[in-house]
Amino acid sequence: MVKEGISANGVVSSIKDFAQKCGNTKSNSLALFLFGVAGYVAGAVG
Q1: CA angle, 15 as apex, 11 and 21 as ends, to 5°?
Q2: Distance between CA atoms of residues 35 and 46, nearest Å
Q3: Between the CA atoms of 38, 42, 44 and 46, what dihedral angle is there, to the nearest 10 degrees?
Q4: C-alpha 14: how far from chain center
Q5: For the residues of 3-46, what is the DSSP string, one character each?
Q6: End-to-end distance of the chain based on CA atoms, in angstroms?
Q7: What per-residue confidence (pLDDT) applies to 43?
Q8: Burial group, residue 8, by CB count within 10 angstroms (0-12, 13-18, 19+)
Q9: Cα dist. 2→6, 10, 45, 46 in Å?
Q10: What pLDDT sits at residue 12?
Q11: For residue 3, is pLDDT > 80?
């Protein structure tokens, strides 16, 4: 029973971490999309 509890906690933790990474990716993508809409060009001078 103890091993099953530890295993379940590991699964829940890994799912939580994955969901957080997905959220971070979405928020970063939104920021980049807004830069693109605004006409930002990386490395452009002036």
Answers
A1: 145
A2: 16
A3: 50
A4: 13
A5: HHHHHHHHHHHHHHHHHHHHHHHHHHHHHHHHHHHHT--TT---
A6: 65
A7: 85
A8: exposed
A9: 6, 13, 61, 63
A10: 86
A11: no
Q: How far apart are CA 27 and CA 5, in angstroms?
A: 33
List, for residues 6-32, the tens digit of each pLDDT value: 566 788 889 999 999 999 999 899 989
Q: CA-CA distances (angstroms) from residue 39 to 13, 22, 30, 46?
A: 40, 26, 14, 13
Q: How far, in Å, CA of 26 to CA of 32, rounded?
A: 10
* Phi, psi for 19 (deg, rounded to 5): -65, -40
